[in-house]
Amino acid sequence: MNLDSVDSLRTRSRRDALARLRAEGAPLRARELAAALGCSEAELVAIDPKLKVTALAPRWREILSALDALGEVMSLTRNSAVVSEITGPYGAPEFFEEHLGQVSGHPLDLRIFLHSWAFAFAVESPQGERTLRSVQFFDRHGEAVHKVYLRDSTKVSVFDALVARFAEPGASVEVVPRPGAPDERPDSAVDAVGLREAWSKLESAHQFFRLLKRYGVTRTQALRLAGPAWAEPLGGEVLPRLLDAVAAARVPVMFFVGNEAMLQIYQGTVTRVRPIDGWCNVFERDFTLHADLSRLGAAWRVRKPTNGGVITSFELFDKAKQNVLLVYGQRDDDGFDRPAWRAVIDAL
Predict the structure, then answer these.
(1) Between helices 9-23 and 30-37, what is the axis angle to 10°?
(2) Quick check: helix, strand or coil at residue 31?
(3) What does the radius of gyration of the chain's CA atoms come to, in whole angstroms?
(4) Which of 13-17, 140-144, 232-236 is predicted most confidently?
């Protein structure tokens, strides 16, 4: 789909359907609107007549490095069920390999995986008397992987300069259907004894991904086979109970929300937990978390040994068994779980 020639029959049909949905007053978010139209979110952005959209060149490192000049922004990363929004300066990214990078700062902390990034747009959306400006990134399947919104204090002239610098007239939005998830191996085909032994010898939580690959297991399969010494399922709608508990005890925690292209991390204390229309929400000055309870599946209490001692996490999955949220307690100076976090997570 070429952004400069959006008059195709399919595009006109989608625009007409979009107009009908809006006329009906459907309070749908962009992701839900795209699903209702049978297209990707990237394609929706490209055809939405309410938006001023400029396609940007896929110069990911340069664009991400330019965001630091925007001042205070709201950084949004989401997956199928959980949305993380952090407000603050973007910070200058560091890149280590061709596709890996990070933004290390406070409150915003990111891990960047560029291998699947495909499209970027500068988007201007009228909101009453003001205009909401953002830079939005999408993967090859057209799913939004990261969005950066300007705040009122942001220099609009810097945004305009960024758009002029990276604009790519005539860019196309050609998405690739997402393949189905690979079949999980039967438990009987997994060396469960070896898995548990290797788990007991972990020296860092970062080694967990290599453990999954080594034994050819999915994350939920590894948790299931690890045994109660390392992983225990938690029943019911446990996320609200966890958030209420850490808020009541003022336990400092770390939230990890991501997708295959971006991981967004926030560290702090939760004080305001609010259920709204089937969503569980956290509202802080510089951080907002939204979790769609209807999309959540299994939750687990997970323990991993490290050189600094055993650390305990809360792991949440959607109904397709994809990890959508990790919560850790902030550790003490020796790298151990703080007693207050251990008391909360053990009580679940």
Answers:
(1) 120
(2) helix
(3) 21
(4) 140-144
Collapsing DSSP to helix, strand or coil, 340 comes out as helix
Number of separate domains in the chain? 2
Residue numbers of the domain that contains 269: 187-273+293-347
Q: Is 336 found in the same domain as 202? A: yes
How many other CB atoms are there within 10 angstroms of residue 306's CB atom? 16
Rounded Cα distance between 264 and 241, Å, is 23
Domain assignment present for 200: yes
Question: Across the strands, what pairs with 254?
Answer: 267, 328
Q: What is the pLDDT of residues 290-345, one digit of tens each?
A: 999 999 999 999 999 988 889 999 999 999 999 999 999 998 877 789 999 999 99
Residues 6+ apart with CB under 8 A from 49: 15
* Residue in the block written with tokens 């390392």: 230
One-letter amino acid identity for 18? L
pTM of the model: 0.93
Q: Do 65 and 158 reside in the same domain of the chain?
A: yes
Strand partners, 135: 122, 148
